[in-house]
Amino acid sequence: MKNYRLTTMSVVLLVLVCVLPVFAQSKGSIEYEGKKSSWNGYEKYDFALDGIPCYVVAPKECEPGKPWVLRARFPNYHADIDVKLLEAGYHIAFINVANLYGGPEACKRWSKMYEHMIDKYDLNAKVVLEGVSRGGLIVYNWAKRNPDKVASIYCDTPVCDIRSWPGGKGQGRGSDADWERCMKAYGLTEETAGEFTGNPIDGLDELAKAGVPVMHVVSESDTVVPPDENTRVLQKRYRELDGPILVLSIDEGTKVSHGHHFPLTSVVVDTAVDFILRYGPKD
């Protein structure tokens, strides 16, 4: 039986929601746009912003205050958490930022999605940010630019330093193809990447000053995104700035994923959902 333990107070996000409309009336008088389908028993609406694929999953009943999650990458991974949030009246939103590694173009897309959700659907001005693995890059890079717009952050084994992954410059396995694309996304070279200060671990001052709660879940056996090069560095720096952060540690991930992924348990789901509901957007 795996051993789960909570370490240091800290809060996060993750996540991800939004409300969207395809000329269909429902969910607290919100009119959704896009192609309607079903996602885990909830209505999903696919649409595009400037040609970029997006979607929103709508709750059956919208919670007062219209809370929502903006999810980064791999939106169907460990989806049990988002299903629980839908049950609680949250919207879940997503815009494609694949192969942008949280760089300037990814942040531009997230800002466009955020404004679309707020202006068109009147969702809460503060959003929960949710990210998995490389999704941590866009979560933090957007959050640091927009601390006043973030309710909380939840991340699952997040990349917090591109030199660790995809760079593979430390303990991690790295990915040569992803590293080339990542450097291109940031306009970096092998020479300049070593001094890069635009990682999630950098420039956390304004996020901490805003008191944004953060929660991470990490796998101790992760050799793809080693916690000591990623979450633990961010955790230490955020705590030094008096930022609230909680880290849930899983002893061992799956062998096939080199420890990076782990089976989702009720401990993780309940802790993450409780965290997001506690620190999510209010009326």
From TrEMBL:
GO terms for molecular function: hydrolase activity. Residues 1-24 form the signal peptide. Keywords: Hydrolase, Signal. The keyword Hydrolase applies. The keyword Ligase does not apply. This is Alpha/beta hydrolase family protein. It comes from Anaerohalosphaera lusitana. The lineage of its organism: Bacteria, Pseudomonadati, Planctomycetota, Phycisphaerae, Sedimentisphaerales.
